[in-house]
Amino acid sequence: MRIVELNDYSMTITKDSEDYPWFSIGGLYRKSVEWGCHIEVRKEPDYYKVDEPIRVANQASSEAVYTAGILVLLFKDRVDDNFHLHDRVTLVFV
Predict the structure, then answer these.
(1) Strand pairing partners for 10?
(2) Nearest to residue 25, comparing CAs of 10, 13, 35?
(3) How far apart are the first and last CA of the chain?
(4) Structural domain that includes position 64
(5) Chain segment 72-83, per-residue pLDDT in tens
(6) Taking the complete model, does pTM exceed 0.90, yes or no?
(7) Do the beta carbons of residue 67 and residue 28 sit within 8 Å?
(8) DSSP strand E in 15-88: where?
(9) Which of 22, 33, 36, 35 is nearest to 71 (CA)?
(10) Helix extents (H) in the chain
(11) What's the DSSP call for residue 79?
(12) CA dist., res. 37 & res. 34, Å (int)
């Protein structure tokens, strides 16, 4: 997954060519609604940038909206400063 849009209280995520072909953002969203849980976004560390410290960030969304392969996560608190546009992220249930 990649962050394609980033605002103070929201993050837009789409599937990336590096993701497993069987993974579905829509399936993840439907399961979160069915199970009544939130989606947490986790930044994957970039181990190849040896000159920069590894920064990892986790943040649970308060709401999510899904449409046409795009997942918009809404947060009660400001989005963590360690998330950046085009970062690769992982989505999990909390």
Answers:
(1) 74
(2) 13
(3) 18
(4) 2-93
(5) 999 999 998 888
(6) no
(7) no
(8) 39-43, 58-60, 63-67, 70-74
(9) 33
(10) 25-35
(11) P
(12) 8
**What are 6-48's pLDDT values in tens digits?**
999 999 999 988 888 888 888 889 989 898 888 888 887 665 6
Rounded alpha-carbon distances, angstroms, from residue 14 to 4, 5, 49, 53: 7, 10, 24, 26
Q: Give the number of domains in the chain.
A: 1
Sort strands 58-60 and 39-43 into parallel, antiparallel or unpaired. antiparallel
Distance CA 14, CA 29 (A): 12
* b/e burial code for range 1-21 (CB count within 10 A of at least 16 → b): bbbeeeeeeebbbebeeeeee
Vertex 76 angle, CA 71 and 29, to 5°: 25
